[in-house]
Amino acid sequence: MMTTRLEAVQEKIYALASVKKRRVYLPEAGDDVRTLKAALAVARKGFALPVLVGERAKVEAIAEGENLNITPLELVDPRADESLLSKMAESYRTKRAKENLTSEDAIKVMSDPLYFAAEAVARGDGDGMTAGAVNSTGNVLRASIKCIGMQAGIKTVSSHFVMVVPDCPLGEQGVMMFADCAVVIEPTKEQVADIAIATAEMMQKLLGYEPRIAMLSFSTKGSAAHASVTRMREAAELVNQLRPDLKCDGELQADAALIESIGKRKAPGSSMAGQANVLIFPDLNAGNISYKLVQRLAGAEAIGPVLQGLAKSVNDLSRGCSVDDIENVIAITAAKANFL
User: Fold this and answer.
1) Single pTM value for the model
2) Which one, of 146, 147, 139, lies nearest residue 31 by Cα?
3) What is the pLDDT of residue 251?
4) CA dihedral in degrees (110, 114, 120, 123; nearest 10)?
5) Which of 22, 43, 267, 272 could form a disulfide with 249 if both were Cys (CB 3.0 to 4.6 A apart)?
């Protein structure tokens, strides 16, 4: 049977995740049956070790209601071990000293499965965390930044989607990364450059493709004048200064970035015209709208949002995610933990 492009992408990610089986904390186990089903699928396939986090009674009630046998899975109830909860609360309180938290305040924070899981990853009890099926991206980011912090040398937490478009010759035969589609609303040129560099590294490390970055705009090489056009052009220049090893150009319209004949006509001097596999959007409006349109109109698989810029492997989910989506993002979380 012929392997589809999506299956090929999944095989790459699962193989990278399997290099060393990582413990991935799932803090929405007490609120979402999709999380339980995805955890069981991951445990069955064996590429990671899912850890359910939540109030035991709630998790078991959801499992029983869906006739799911979760006994093979590790389940951590933040409130069940007072000694551990106090230890983690004190660690968090010390870390957030500027907030002047009391011990009771810190215990209350750590009783939240999302913060408990993030702190467990920060402490090294787990290797990564996947959440967002129930929590907003903002909630996931706040817990992650407060507990885990930023990756050395990175100033911007951002995100990308792995887009797999069926029957598409563009990018890497339909495989591309879109960024940022979930986090930074109106990035500065420095943030756009950060997003581009982080996404390019993920394209290389996660999927093994040489990244070719296009800074997208409604203008190609000065065909229109606007502050956002200037920002994308200057961001491309900044990437080329900071990382001359990366292939990056802009500003480019989407058709010029993806279709060689159009790229050669609109941007004849650009080495990136028609060659891009990493698409960087000028703001969150453009990125979020674009990935959803491609997903729904072209039947593309949108894997993510994959967070980048944190010190440990944490990934967000869309609240409209499927069980398969969660499984894919857990795989990426485990894979990232093997190269961060």
Assistant:
1) 0.87
2) 139
3) 86
4) -80
5) 272
